[in-house]
């Protein structure tokens, strides 16, 4: 196989051959390097496609030498000596010119005289003829290059089309006039185009970066409609394809950000105790108020669930609920997470800027969980946001008006923190406009019955197990326990029990978690009362022994204890666990 195959453009070569033949008053033939006749005029036309390797001595010489051969004495020339037709050669002259491409011979063009007239013409105008033929061979090699270039482009386009069709982001490949050359399904549906949109002009202009950290924001105008998208425009070094637009609609980008943020539980509050009924009434009363709410209570009492219930029963239910755990985000990042930043606001910041959680929550609710862990310098900033109802991105001085309802939560004693100088008193009063207390489970024991039933149902469904009943005494044990980890601990205990439950579907005392031994022996509370801190320390130590101290180990511990990794580190520090 040769690199260049002249047969691919044989029709065009034949057209040239015919033209040259007329102008030069001679016959023309073109052969490739295998001495196959590609084109031919007059006498040679019928012989196109024939293999000439047994003859064609002159051509062989031209191919090997890469030089032109002018034969004025065909049959007698030394190059004709071995030719079987040398004795009865009908030619009066022959000019054989190599067709060169990249310094490689890809074929030979032969100009052949068959009568004296053409011989005479040649003799008179040899130089002109040679120039002319040179031009023609150059044309042929240019045609060959173009042929491969187009073929390359076609397969390149095909490959690009296939690749693009696999991408979930919207992709448009535009030509130099910003007309669509390639589009994928996502781009078509986002811009409301049909699949035959090739050739349609797309106008795009920067929209100024407001939301996304990983792309620029653009308006795309198509069919008289304007779309607001986030993405990237890649330039291409290609004469036909000019740029690639990769983007997603702003709504999707915002909701992706939102999905990343919202890991909250949106279940409903279970419990029929007097206390829980009161809580539900209170939620109803306040859900439409725009005042700030502070939910206090031990860990696992359902503070976040209360916050989402307020959201769902209020008039902001159709807008966002953005939850941010102030303890889980490193102090250095918390400020930019909350307020956002503009391009190049600080070293290491994404060069395009990013929306903050306050802005993202606009017209909805922001839930500031573990507000007691907020560093004091940020407390004053939060206070300012709450007072002025505007937010300013880091690195910018533009104030963005906010219509956000704030719900904060903490398991810390903020009044004590104020006394210790760790929490700003003015912020506390700003937050504590509507205080809600999430009671510990042991202070609303009736709920244990409802919650146990609720979780039994959830986990037996989840694990596809049939639950029949609970052995007498099991519920008493659960009711008597003091649940330091509150509802979260109860949920974990029930999940464990359903795992342990035999095929008879009966929850026995044996299915209770081992660590329940504190109250398991006789169904009564262990007479040695431990502090919560002691219990937490014990559990963390146990988990460290089981899973080890590696980063992965700690991840698993955090999962098992149902707390965040940041909380685990904080607690290890607090209890001086090495
Ligand atoms: N009354 C309830 N009904 C149903 N599920 C509940 C109830 N209270 C809490 N839960 C569940 O218990 C778990 C812990 O609740 P949540 O995260 O709201 O507690 P929290 O007080 O915010 O905890 P932390 O202070 O540790 O963040 C969640 O899975 C929640 O759905």
Automatic annotation (TrEMBL):
CDD domains membership: AAA (cd00009)
Domain Sigma-54 factor interaction, chain residue ranges per copy: 269-499
UniProt cross-references to InterPro entries, sorted A to Z: AAA+_ATPase (IPR003593), AAA_lid_NorR (IPR058031), GAF-like_dom_sf (IPR029016), Homeodomain-like_sf (IPR009057), HTH_Fis (IPR002197), P-loop_NTPase (IPR027417), Sigma_54_int (IPR002078), Sigma_54_int_dom_ATP-bd_1 (IPR025662)
SMART domains named among the record's database cross-references: AAA (SM00382)
PROSITE patterns: SIGMA54_INTERACT_1, SIGMA54_INTERACT_3, SIGMA54_INTERACT_4
Record protein name field: Transcriptional regulator containing PAS, AAA-type ATPase, and DNA-binding Fis domains
MF terms (GO), sorted A to Z: ATP binding; sequence-specific DNA binding
Gene Ontology biological process: regulation of DNA-templated transcription
Species classification: Bacteria, Bacillati, Bacillota, Tissierellia, Tissierellales
UniProt keyword terms in alphabetical order: ATP-binding, DNA-binding, Nucleotide-binding, Transcription, Transcription regulation
């Amino acid at each position: 196989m040769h690199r260049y195959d002249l047969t691919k453009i044989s029709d065009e070569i034949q057209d040239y051959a015919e033209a040259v033949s007329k102008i030069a008053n001679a016959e023309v033939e073109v052969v490739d390097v295998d001495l196959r006749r590609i084109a031919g005029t007059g006498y040679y036309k019928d012989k196109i496609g024939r293999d000439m390797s047994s003859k064609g001595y002159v051509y062989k010489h031209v191919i090997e030498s890469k030089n032109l051969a002018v034969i004025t004495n065909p049959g007698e020339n030394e190059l004709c000596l071995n030719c079987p037709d040398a004795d009865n050669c009908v030619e009066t002259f022959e000019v054989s010119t190599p067709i060169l491409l990249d310094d490689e011979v890809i074929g030979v063009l032969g100009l052949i005289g068959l009568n004296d007239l053409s011989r005479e013409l040649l003799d008179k105008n040899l130089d002109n003829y040679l120039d002319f033929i040179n031009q023609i061979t150059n044309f042929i090699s240019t045609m060959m290059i173009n042929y491969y270039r187009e073929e390359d482009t076609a397969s390149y386009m095909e490959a690009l089309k296939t690749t693009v069709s696999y991408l979930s982001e919207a992709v448009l490949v535009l030509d130099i006039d910003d007309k669509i050359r390639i589009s994928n399904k996502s781009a078509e549906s986002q811009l409301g185009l049909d699949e035959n949109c090739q050739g349609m002009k797309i106008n795009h202009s920067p929209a100024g970066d407001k939301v996304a950290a990983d792309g620029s924001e653009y308006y795309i105008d198509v069919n008289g409609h304007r779309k607001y998208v986030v993405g990237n425009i890649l330039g291409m070094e290609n004469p036909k394809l000019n740029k690639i637009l990769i983007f997603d609609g702003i709504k999707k980008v915002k909701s992706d950000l939102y999905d990343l943020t919202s890991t909250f539980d949106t279940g409903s509050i279970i419990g029929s105790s007097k206390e829980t009924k009161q809580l539900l009434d209170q939620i109803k009363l306040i859900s439409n108020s725009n005042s700030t709410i502070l939910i206090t209570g031990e860990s696992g009492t359902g503070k976040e669930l209360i916050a989402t219930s307020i959201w769902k029963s209020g008039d902001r239910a159709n807008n966002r609920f953005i939850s941010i755990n102030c303890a889980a985000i490193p102090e250095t990042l918390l400020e930019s997470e909350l307020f956002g930043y503009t391009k190049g606001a600080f070293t290491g910041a994404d060069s395009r800027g990013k929306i903050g959680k306050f802005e993202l929550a606009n017209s909805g609710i922001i839930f500031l969980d573990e507000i007691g862990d907020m560093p004091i310098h940020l407390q004053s900033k939060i206070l300012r946001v709450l007072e002025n109802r505007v937010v300013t991105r880091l690195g910018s001085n533009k104030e963005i008006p906010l219509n956000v309802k704030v719900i904060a939560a903490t398991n810390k004693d903020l009044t004590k923190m104020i006394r210790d100088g760790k929490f700003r008193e003015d912020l506390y009063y700003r937050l504590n406009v509507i205080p809600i207390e999430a009671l510990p489970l042991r202070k609303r024991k009736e709920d244990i019955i409802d919650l146990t039933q609720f979780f039994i149902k959830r986990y037996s469904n989840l694990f596809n197990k049939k639950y029949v009943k609970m052995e007498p005494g099991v519920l008493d044990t659960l009711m008597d326990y003091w649940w330091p980890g509150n509802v979260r601990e109860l949920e974990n205990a029930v999940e464990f029990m359903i795992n342990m439950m035999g095929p008879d579907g009966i929850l026995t005392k044996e299915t209770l978690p081992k660590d329940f031994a504190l109250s398991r022996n006789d169904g009564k509370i262990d007479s040695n009362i431990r502090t919560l801190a002691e219990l937490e320390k014990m559990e963390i130590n146990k988990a460290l022994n089981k899973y080890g101290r590696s980063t992965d180990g700690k991840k698993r511990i955090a999962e098992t204890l149902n707390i965040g990794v940041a909380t685990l580190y904080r607690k290890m520090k607090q209890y001086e666990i090495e």
